[in-house]
C-alpha cells in the first residue's frame, strides 16, 4: 500500500532534464518521493538510471529543472543519503576490515571525536553489521571477501547513518536468493521503521515487487511513473518501447515478452 503523503517529499524533481550533448536521457521529469516510499527505477541499458542516482548525489547537474533531496540541493544533502553503488569488486589488497568499511558510512555524521563519539560509532557499526548478518566476516579484509559478502557490508554502510533516502543501484546483483531476500527485507524494515525513502534501480523487479509503491520506467528518453499495476502492462510498455511488448503475469511475478516472442529473464526488454 502506498504511504499517504502528509509530509514534505524526501526527493523532489520538477521539470528535470538530463542531456549529454545532443542525447537527452530524460526531460520533463516530475517526481516527488514521500518518506517511506519505495520507487523502483527500471529501464534498458543506457536509459539513464545510474545518471539519475548521480544527479541525486550531486555528482551531476541537471541540464534543466529543479532537484532537492531532504529539502536541500543534492550536494548539501549528502549526509542524509545512503548510497549502495553498482557492485564492483574491491581490490584484494585493500587494507580495510569489513567493519571499517561500514564505519565510513558513519564518519562525519555526528558526535565528532571523544570517547562518547567513539562508543556511539562502535555501537552503530556493530548494529549495522549484525543487521546484514555480517558478524562472521566483518573483521576480515574486505578485498578478500566474496562479492555477496562485500555487498552486504555496503548495505550496512549505507544504512548506518540513518539516511532520509536510500539510493540503491542494483543492490541485489551477486547475492544468492537467501541474501537477496535478507537485504530487501532489511531495506523494507528500515523504510517502515524510520521512514527512509528508497529509490531502487534494478533490472529485475520480481524480487522486490511486493515492496514497490511506484515504478519509474525509463526508455530512450521517454518515461512513465506509477504503481506497478499501471506501468507494467502490455499497453504502457508497448508505448514506451515503441514496439510490441507483452507483459505476462505468472503467479505473483511479472515477465516481459519482447517483439520477437522471447521471454526476457528479467522484467525489461534486453533487446528491443
Ligand atoms: N559523463 C557522460 N558523458 C556522456 N555520456 C554519458 C556520461 N555518463 C553516462 N553517459 C551515457 O548516458 C547513458 C545513460 O547512462 P547510465 O549509466 O545512466 O545508464 P543506465 O540506465 O544506468 O544503464 P545500465 O542499465 O547499463 O547500468 C549511456 O548511454 C551512457 O553512455
From TrEMBL:
Keyword tags: ATP-binding, Nucleotide-binding, Transport
UniProt feature coiled coil, ranges: none
Origin superkingdom: Bacteria
Alphabetized SMART domains for the sequence: AAA
Pfam families the record matches: ABC_tran
The keyword Transport appears for this protein: yes
Gene3D superfamilies, sorted: P-loop containing nucleotide triphosphate hydrolases
Keyword ATP-binding: yes
Every ABC transporter domain range: 11-245
Stored PROSITE patterns: ABC_TRANSPORTER_1, ABC_TRANSPORTER_2
Molecular function, one GO term: ATP binding
Protein name per UniProt: ABC transporter ATP-binding protein
Organism per entry: Actinokineospora bangkokensis
Amino acid at each position: 500500500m502506498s504511504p499517504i503523503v502528509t509530509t514534505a517529499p524526501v526527493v523532489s524533481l520538477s521539470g528535470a532534464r538530463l542531456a549529454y550533448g545532443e542525447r537527452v536521457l530524460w526531460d520533463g521529469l516530475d517526481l516527488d518521493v514521500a518518506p517511506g516510499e519505495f520507487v523502483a527505477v527500471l529501464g534498458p541499458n543506457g536509459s539513464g538510471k545510474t545518471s539519475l542516482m548521480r544527479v541525486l548525489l550531486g555528482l551531476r547537474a541537471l541540464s534543466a529543472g529543479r532537484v532537492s533531496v531532504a529539502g536541500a540541493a543534492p550536494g548539501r544533502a549528502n549526509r542524509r543519503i545512503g548510497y549502495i553503488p553498482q557492485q564492483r569488486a574491491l581490490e584484494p589488497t585493500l587494507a580495510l576490515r569489513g567493519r571499517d568499511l561500514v564505519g565510513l558510512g558513519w564518519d562525519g555524521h555526528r558526535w565528532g571525536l571523544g570517547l562518547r563519539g567513539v562508543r556511539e560509532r562502535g555501537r552503530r557499526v556493530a548494529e549495522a553489521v549484525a543487521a546484514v548478518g555480517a558478524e562472521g566476516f566483518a573483521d576480515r579484509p574486505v578485498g578478500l571477501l566474496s562479492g555477496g559478502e562485500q555487498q552486504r557490508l555496503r548495505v550496512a554502510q549505507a544504512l548506518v547513518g540513518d539516511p532520509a533516502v536510500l539510493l540503491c543501484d542494483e543492490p541485489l546483483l551477486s547475492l544468492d536468493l537467501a541474501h537477496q531476500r535478507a537485504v530487501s527485507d532489511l531495506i523494507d524494515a528500515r523504510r517502515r521503521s524510520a521512514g527512509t525513502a528508497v529509490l531502487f534501480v534494478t533490472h529485475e523487479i520480481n524480487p522486490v515487487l511486493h515492496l514497490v509503491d511506484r515504478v519509474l520506467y525509463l526508455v530512450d528518453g521517454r518515461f512513465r511513473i506509477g504503481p506497478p499495476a499501471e506501468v507494467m502492462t502490455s499497453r504502457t510498455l508497448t508505448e514506451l518501447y515503441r514496439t510490441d511488448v507483452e507483459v505476462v503475469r505468472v503467479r505473483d511475478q511479472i515477465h516481459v515478452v519482447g517483439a520477437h516472442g522471447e521471454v526476457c529473464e528479467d522484467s525489461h526488454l534486453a533487446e528491443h
